[in-house]
Amino acid sequence: MKEKLTCYIIDDEPLAQEILEEYIAKVSFLELKGVFMSPLEAVAPLEKDKPDLLFLDINMPDLDGLSFIPMLNPKPMIILTTAYDQHAIKAFELEVKDYLLKPFSFERFYKGILRLYQEQSPRHSQEVNKTIPDSKNEQKYIFLKVGHRIQKVAIKDILFVEGMKDYLRIHTPQEKIMTLISFAKLEELLPARDFARVHRSFMVAIDKIDHIEKNRIQIGDQLIPISDTYAEAFYNKLKGLA
Q: What is the DSSP track for 35-63?
């Protein structure tokens, strides 16, 4: 049985590489053996090292990830990491093990690789489950796609989030960040204890609330409405934190 899964990263975005490196470093049963900007750079090292697992981006210059997969022999387990969801069906036809849609949280990452590790080393599963990293204590920031870049956002800086049709506007003391992501996806990324949806168009950071009056939340100079749909769950959450 394997004590660790060796892995490679192939992604042409330095920040995306950095996120994966940080996530991998938190997991005791993963060992990072190589990081590459393109599939072509990784061909020779892959043949030599034969890693167990490959984190592979899809959209890359010269050769995209989906075209690269059939060329692999032997083929490691593959987890695709991409900002685009339209390739999911093709990916699973190629028998990839998981499909991580950027930006993905550590929790989502960990669930996927834990499942793979348990499949490979079932005798270690119980021990690993006892030592799942405390992601709430460790998570200090999230990564969001903003235009053509992925931006690091400190969780402690988020005041509230405002829905803008297909986009969300994240308000911090320093700036307002527009990102193409849904509230449901953002809620997966943020610690549930610290944030609450209060309206179809608003989510608030609980520790940034100045006061609540007449079903309106004051955060700085902003008044945020609490709708009937979310009021009961929101007030119950506040009671649970008291």
A: EESSHHHHHHHHHHH--SEEEEES--SSS
- Structural contact between residues 200 and 163, judged by C-beta atoms closer than 8 angstroms: yes
Q: How do beta strands 167-171 and 160-164 pair?
A: antiparallel
Distance (Å) of CA 183 to CA 18, 149, 229:
25, 20, 15
CB atoms near residue 49 (< 10 Å): 14
- Cα(57)–Cα(60) distance, integer angstroms: 7
Answer yes or no: are the C-beta atoms of 161 and 188 closer than 8 Å.
no
In this prediction, residue 72 carries a pLDDT of: 92
The partner residues of 44 in beta bridges, in order of sequence, read none
Write the pLDDT tens digit of every residue in 2-51.
Answer: 578 999 999 999 999 999 999 999 999 999 999 999 999 999 999 999 99
